[in-house]
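Show me any protein, keeping tokens residue-aligned.
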Amino acid sequence: SAQFRNQSQLGTGILEEREWDFTVLGIRFESGDNINFSAKRTYEYLDFGYEVSEGIAIEPGEYTNWEYAARGGTSGRRRVSVFGGITRSGFWSGTRTNFGGRITFRPNPGVSIGTNLQINKVDLPQGSFDANLYEVETDWSPNPWVSMTGQVRYDDQTQLIGLFARLRWIVKPGNDIFLVYTHNWQNLGGNILDDRDLITLSRGGSVKMNYVYRF
């Protein structure tokens, strides 16, 4: 299969992005396990430069790159499911290699615990750096009407830690109440496990109610 996306600036008509996405081979087994191989060609126009990592700047200009990916996973119906992949792609004027993996445990009905890891190795003419993302997510649904989700993620490139928690209560079909809490920290220390120094960047909570009136 193939997908095409084109994005231009309003007014000027300057092409900002163009993307061709090809699924070269996709296999899904009767068990629900799957594997697929894909290729993507991307054109990007960068009108302003920016610093992608400390001391490493991306210059404005036009960039065309290819991305090749192999991904696979086991069925989500299993008590333990696994998803993983490797991607090799151009990254502006350099290259990026990504290794990603996710393991989800479902010890009991309505309970799931997932761990996600993304490892990115970037090589540019201006320099090289690693950017890794670590994530733990839990879901608990004690009954069909109540569900709770919690997520903690850490980005070792920006040294940011984020917490997201949500409670959903279905009062009756179509009428929902959501309670959401978020908290973000910046690590000013060294290693997050042994020498951390956390400061709060932001935190907040919100309540959302959905009501459907039928007539």
In short: The longest strand covers residues 127-143. The radius of gyration is 21 Å. The chain has a mean pLDDT of 93.
